[in-house]
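Lab meeting, action items carried over

1. Structure of the two-component assembly. Owner: GW. Status: complete.
Input record:
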Amino acid sequence: MKNVKAEIVAVGTELLLGQIANTNAQWISDELASIGMNVHHHAVVGDNLKRVENQFRVSQERSDVIIITGGLGPTEDDLTREAFQEITRTPIIEHKPSMDKIESFFEERKIAMTPNNRKQARVFAGSDVIENQTGMAPGMMISHEGRTWIFLPGVPREMKRMMRDSVLPYFKKQHGAGSVIKSVMLRFIGIGESTLEHELSDLIKQQTNPTIAPLAQNEGVAIRLTAKADSDDEAAAIINRAKKEILKRTGHYYYGDDDETLTEKVFNLMQKNNLTIGAAESLTGGQFTDKLTSVPGASKVCNGSIVCYDAKVKENVLRVSSDIIKQQGTVSEACALAMAENVRSLLDADIGISFTGVAGPESSEGQSPGTVFIAVHDQSGKRLAEKFNFQGDRQAIRRRTVLKGYELLFKLLN
Amino acid sequence: MKNVKAEIVAVGTELLLGQIANTNAQWISDELASIGMNVHHHAVVGDNLKRVENQFRVSQERSDVIIITGGLGPTEDDLTREAFQEITRTPIIEHKPSMDKIESFFEERKIAMTPNNRKQARVFAGSDVIENQTGMAPGMMISHEGRTWIFLPGVPREMKRMMRDSVLPYFKKQHGAGSVIKSVMLRFIGIGESTLEHELSDLIKQQTNPTIAPLAQNEGVAIRLTAKADSDDEAAAIINRAKKEILKRTGHYYYGDDDETLTEKVFNLMQKNNLTIGAAESLTGGQFTDKLTSVPGASKVCNGSIVCYDAKVKENVLRVSSDIIKQQGTVSEACALAMAENVRSLLDADIGISFTGVAGPESSEGQSPGTVFIAVHDQSGKRLAEKFNFQGDRQAIRRRTVLKGYELLFKLLN
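Predicted assembly:
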């Protein structure tokens, strides 16, 4: 879409009161950037009919594509439809498939449907309705005086699903022949953003096609390669050449492309090798296993775990010897190793992994928050234990511990 | 500042590319709300002179106070000053104290100052200069045709310091005495947004002070009450009167105010009653326990859990009888009850809770995704088990199962 000017408008007073940040606009912008569309404006306006109307007028004036998030719900505060109708005179009709879905939702739950729920099934006449797979109010796409308007719910999960299933494919099709944009994310673990950038600095400086952008991620770092070409094949070839050169230098830290998570990578490596795992989780409280079981088909790999938050559970269920607990404490290499070994045999798994440490905010057993031991015990009798000092608050320490566990397994299995 | 309309404009292409979220706007909005100023718009515009000018014209037209973040740095991309000059013809001069500071910064570090750094000391003639305590470019406040313009750096640390030291005190002084705004969120579980709104529709229709806004949340729903008054006490009294009336009708579903989560509420109820809990988690894979252990001090309440993802673990570790597993399956009321009872005794807890079901995407044991049993077994011998049919994908089903577990505990303990 050459030189298309896109704009993202969020409707919702909670944003103007500072209760949440406009992460929807960030996410959509990132997606549009990856297919080469230019976002020129973000706007946020509250749940006030007159002001939403005025914002929509400004947007209609200056942008080719206007993406609206929010204001489609059942309450009287939800005014997006009304504002667009006010300035365009587009009739609003009830969308039967959406209404049927809403009614059956309430029927199945045996809850009386209140009348305001009907509102969520109302759509603009002549619009392309986007089905809501994860909620009630459908999205809509409609043209108005040369502009494309796209209406999406404000709930991030619903919005993202509609963007992925309907809106982004539509934009890609609009591209037409001739100009293809292809983007790939290369994902790395165990290397920092600045080191990665340093290793690739000459490539990054020379970049034109593909562009090479290092990005810090929640899990490790990533490099986004974006190629423009006349065909899919050509764009793929441009990306593959650059990818090869990058992995020649940093392949040691590379674990996957695009949406692949480190958890999925570890899952796939275990499945390929026919291995099962059991975890003993203390400070991580089940988070390691929660992540693993979020992968469909997890039962092939994950036997389960013992969350031994209480020292008594370490002793009575995991059978860590009371000598270790008394003399070295639960936050110790010896305890971590015993946990890994014993959970492996208790859960009859090929690999046992354990996490013990201090999440904070208080110190524990004289050790400061962030002190963490992770141990692994595998079917060949190999044992390893590492000590870490993680920074951050309680949630960050727990999150980093889990991520490090997956990093250790990745190194072990890769 | 009665009925002052404020607007926050961020200048920076990185926001439009989705590289960062506009958390500056969130932070500023939250601060302004706390002193009773109404923010009517957020806007984001890229580093492009023409577009920044146009955005500034729109803002000058519609808002009384315009706060700009970003675009004051040393590079050619930093265009905030130029855009404002272009539309207002305000002369720009060098601010000697700022220039001295920049020069001594480079001298102290024995780095040659590149010429573009002079740009950072340039300010509007006639503006109130806000010293930058933590960086280089100063901020500015200036009036233009009845509007107040405030220019701040985009670096959050620098922006926040200037807001706290200079801008917020200035606004409070403008206020004069009186006029306080106070906002409270009331949180509910087990009732839908539309039903809640229906129950309170007359109150919502009559609302003036406080305003009453229902909001869908990740965990249940919430109602935001916002009061304006001449004093803190008066605002609190207005909110309390409305809260009382709302809870008279819907108090059964109410669990807490403001940032309190349902997990924290359950944690607090258990702590108050000196109760401990152990969980047996199948489809939820540790997520229930992960949430509970995210609360600081979790060890007082949470003994641990058995994540029995594999049927063998249900049988061998949790000692669910093989008869139950063979005849009724692992996705059954009998299995859920046995899991809850056995995990309670195995982990020596007061309450045992269990989760078993089908997360999908595939069916399991002839049951379709979303079929879930949750059981609770408590110290008095009370047992309960409920069957649910949750909608959504694998992650949604697991998330809803965990939330429902907390809802059941809340009902049990409240």
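2. GW to write a short summary for the group page. Key points so far: Chain A has 15 helices and 17 strands. The mean pLDDT of chain A is 92.
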